[in-house]
């Protein structure tokens, strides 16, 4: 759903920010009145307040406030001060041309000495543990979070009269961003009110979402690829700040002098405390960095506030601008804690400046209140068994509640914007366009209650089936938010067989998940394919097939599965699975005595366990999608074959464990790991062994072996490692041409070791196995290793890998193998 809505936003020129109709916004440039050159580090201050900022090295600045202000002053050493009026509660463009002061000076001697900003930075590092909120033993606070989706560079004159008629009303709600200077239109607004409790040891994290609501276009897991990253907690005390999967160097990094130049530009009195204002500027662009300023308390060496902005020219996709503001407050005589933080991101399909190009902005603001530090956590909170609890007793659309929850009151114009945002989706033309794009991007054409598709499976082809035609359908959320029905039918011309399947899902509870699924199908299936491989009938698997590696098996299956999420980060699945597998032209079942086995019957019970920590999960009515975690994610799969149950022929036991982890290694990129291993106990035919994951297409599969055929290796005891490291242009960005192309390096290593007991090894000449192995299949007691290098971010989407097979090279008995492979893939990365 999210990709459809995202593309619909592009079509309608609609998309991210926070409502600031009552905010006074100012942006502009400060230059020398005589030379016209920009003046860096000029102090801009709202008269009568301590709200101010300094200009960057191009002389630019921006300020926003809800305070009652009327004048803005610019001050710079050796220049005359200037004050200009401000239009309160509106957007202002105010440029200053400062006049130099000509003064006769006596002789001045300049002697070398330490940059005073460096001494302050050392004191910040020494006091990080004391000042960093993450280092506190315990704390709690209340939050009010607001997010908004906006479209920028939207022109009030639609050339299309039909669009003008349907959507012309929206333009009276446009505003202008002080940061980018772009006019924007809000199209989605979300608000949330929550209480949060944290204890360091023993670790405890509990968030109680008291209320949340969303207006306009519903945010889901595809949009969450963009907006989900705006939920990140920005902690400048960390050496690196991970936003949009990019590790930016923090200006308070312990080795920040490698990346930034620092300048002590001013000191001011704020609430009786002396605050140092330090401007920082990046030394280069090979590593993601910011430009901005930090304000440091002179007594505690704590961060009082910061304003920073991503510099231009970085190897970052889709984000043309990124600005962060954070403010801390003193909650007792010595403890600083979060008061407010903001993130604004400007998304665009091009990085060049263009007032004609539609772009999209995202703005998230969190206000903190009721902060307590190192106090006991209430017993009722300690009893909660979920890290996130949603209070369903509060009316989400109760306006009286939100008026009390907000740290400020909305103006009438701001309140009307909520109504405008909701009214967009009620325009008939919107729904028509939505239906059209939904078909293209989600694969299903949805009526109110039923969707038909997916279109990419309507036609496909392979060696076994010849031409395959398929049509499917599934119910929508309007049909039921508890029950989802889906099914499909297919016919293939070469084997002249009908296939099909169906699924019934019943959702007892969405969070935590409690879901029952009953499914069955009669279809062909590729044994030994990874979970990432194209599914049966996908036209892409036909078009990009390597042509000699398809080994499909006919299968009947019936599954009864229940998923239970006990609390966030710990879930089980319980399944009873029935299978009938039949030999085909390309996959035979031959006994050691030469007779063919006409089918394999199995009934098995499966217990799955999934463990994760601090995982970000986006939930829909029936599905949930992981947005990742900073910690390893562990999966445990236990299977028991039930001989005699539903005519099952075999008793066996299988245990498998996998560990996945994305590790950020700033500033040289990040690594993706998956380590897996398992063992099968008992005597089984080879389709029930571990058939190691081959790849039959030119598409890159991170969890399959690119140079391995299907049915090449089998094991009943195994271990495998899949590793990728993404350098994000760390080396190529230092080469001028590559820097402009913004290509990025990636290396891969995949290794496998396995063993087969004699009772399951159908490749032995005097085998005691149930079935002979297909020609060319064997054990992998000698490790199988392949490695590759690749370039990603080609045209910001394409990745190409060159992969070499390092062991088991050369044609093997009965199988032609590839010692080298070229794979490509499509990735939407920042």
UniProtKB/TrEMBL annotation:
InterPro entries according to UniProt: CarboxyPept-like_regulatory (IPR008969), DUF5686 (IPR043741)
Entries under Pfam families matching the protein: CarbopepD_reg_2, DUF5686
Keywords for this protein: Signal
Top-level taxonomic group: Bacteria
Keyword Signal: yes
Signal peptide segment: 1-21
Protein name: Carboxypeptidase-like regulatory domain-containing protein
Gene source species: Butyricimonas hominis
């Amino acid at each position: 759903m999210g990709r459809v809505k995202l593309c619909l936003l592009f079509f309608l020129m609609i998309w991210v920010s926070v409502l600031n109709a009552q905010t006074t916004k100012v942006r502009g440039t400060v230059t020398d009145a005589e030379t016209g050159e920009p003046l860096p580090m000029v102090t801009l201050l709202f008269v009568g307040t301590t709200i101010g900022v300094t200009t960057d090295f191009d002389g630019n600045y921006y300020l926003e406030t809800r305070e009652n202000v009327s004048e803005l002053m610019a001050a710079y050493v050796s220049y005359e001060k200037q004050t200009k009026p401000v239009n309160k509660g509106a957007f202002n463009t105010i440029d200053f041309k400062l006049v130099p002061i000509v003064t006769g000076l006596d002789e001045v001697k300049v002697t070398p000495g330490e940059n005073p900003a460096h001494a302050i930075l050392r004191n910040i590092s020494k006091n990080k543990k004391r000042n960093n909120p993450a280092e506190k033993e315990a704390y709690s606070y209340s939050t009010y979070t607001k997010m908004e989706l906006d479209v920028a560079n939207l022109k009030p004159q639609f050339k299309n009269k039909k669009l003008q008629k349907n959507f012309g009303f929206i333009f009276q709600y446009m505003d202008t961003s002080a940061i980018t200077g772009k006019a924007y239109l809000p199209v989605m607004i979300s608000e949330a009110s929550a209480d949060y409790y944290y204890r360091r040891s023993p670790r405890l994290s509990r968030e109680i979402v008291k209320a949340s609501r969303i207006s306009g276009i519903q945010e889901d897991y595809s949009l969450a690829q963009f907006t989900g990253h705006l939920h990140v907690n920005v902690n400048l005390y960390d050496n690196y700040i991970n936003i949009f999967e990019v590790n930016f160097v923090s200006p308070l990094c312990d080795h920040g002098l490698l990346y930034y130049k620092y300048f002590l530009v001013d000191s001011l009195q704020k609430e009786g405390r002396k605050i140092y204002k330090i401007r920082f500027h990046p030394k280069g662009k090979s590593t993601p960095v910011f430009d901005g300023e930090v304000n440091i308390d002179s007594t505690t060496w704590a961060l009082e506030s910061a304003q920073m902005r991503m510099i231009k020219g970085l190897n970052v996709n889709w984000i043309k601008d990124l600005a962060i503001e954070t403010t801390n407050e003193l909650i007792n005589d010595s403890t600083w804690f979060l008061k407010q933080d903001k993130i604004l991101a400007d998304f665009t399909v091009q990085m060049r400046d263009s007032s004609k190009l539609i772009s999209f902005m995202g703005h998230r603001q969190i206000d903190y209140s009721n902060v307590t530090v190192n106090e006991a956590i209430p017993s009722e909170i300690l009893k909660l068994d979920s890290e996130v609890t949603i209070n369903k007793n509060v009316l989400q659309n109760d306006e009286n509640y939100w008026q009390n929850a907000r740290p400020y009151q909305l103006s009438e114009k701001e309140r009307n914007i909520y109504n405008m945002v909701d009214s967009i989706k009620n325009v008939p033309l919107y729904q028509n366009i939505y239906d059209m794009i939904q078909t293209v991007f989600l694969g299903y054409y949805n009526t109110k209650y039923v969707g038909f598709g997916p279109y990419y499976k309507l036609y496909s082809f392979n060696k076994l089936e010849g031409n395959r035609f398929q049509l499917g359908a599934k119910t929508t959320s309007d049909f039921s938010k508890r029950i989802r029905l889906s099914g499909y039918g297919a016919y293939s011309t070469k084997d002249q067989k009908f296939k099909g399947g169906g699924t019934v899902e019943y959702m007892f509870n969405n969070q935590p998940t409690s879901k029952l699924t009953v499914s069955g199908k009669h279809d062909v299936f590729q044994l030994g394919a990874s979970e990432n491989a194209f599914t049966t009938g996908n036209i892409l698997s036909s078009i990009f097939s390597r042509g000699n590696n398809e080994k499909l098996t006919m299968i009947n299956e019936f599954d009864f599965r229940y998923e239970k999420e006990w609390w966030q980060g710990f879930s089980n699945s319980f399944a009873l699975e029935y299978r009938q597998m039949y030999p085909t032209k390309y996959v035979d079942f031959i006994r050691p005595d030469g007779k063919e086995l006409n089918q394999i019957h199995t009934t098995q019970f499966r217990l799955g366990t999934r463990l994760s920590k601090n995982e970000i999960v986006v939930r829909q009515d029936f599905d949930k999608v992981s947005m990742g975690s900073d910690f390893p994610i562990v999966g445990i799969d236990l299977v028991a074959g039930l001989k005699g149950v539903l005519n099952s022929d075999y008793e066996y036991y299988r245990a498998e464990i996998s560990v996945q982890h994305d590790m950020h290694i700033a500033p040289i990129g990040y690594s993706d790991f998956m380590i897996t291993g398992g063992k099968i106990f008992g005597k089984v035919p080879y389709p029930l062994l571990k058939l190691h994951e081959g790849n039959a297409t030119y598409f890159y599969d991170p969890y399959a072996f690119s140079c391995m055929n299907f049915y090449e290796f089998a094991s009943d005891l195994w271990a495998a490692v899949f590793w990728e490291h993404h350098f994000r242009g760390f080396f190529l960005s230092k080469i001028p041409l590559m820097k402009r192309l913004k290509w990025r390096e990636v290396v891969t290593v995949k290794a496998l070791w396995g063993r087969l007991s004699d009772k399951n090894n159908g490749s032995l000449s005097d085998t005691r196995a149930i079935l002979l192995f297909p020609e060319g299949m064997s054990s992998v007691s000698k490790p199988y290793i392949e490695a590759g290098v690749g370039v990603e971010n080609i045209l910001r989407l394409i990745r190409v890998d060159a992969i070499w097979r390092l062991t088991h090279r050369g044609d093997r008995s009965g199988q032609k193998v590839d010692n080298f492979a070229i794979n490509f893939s499509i990735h939407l990365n920042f």
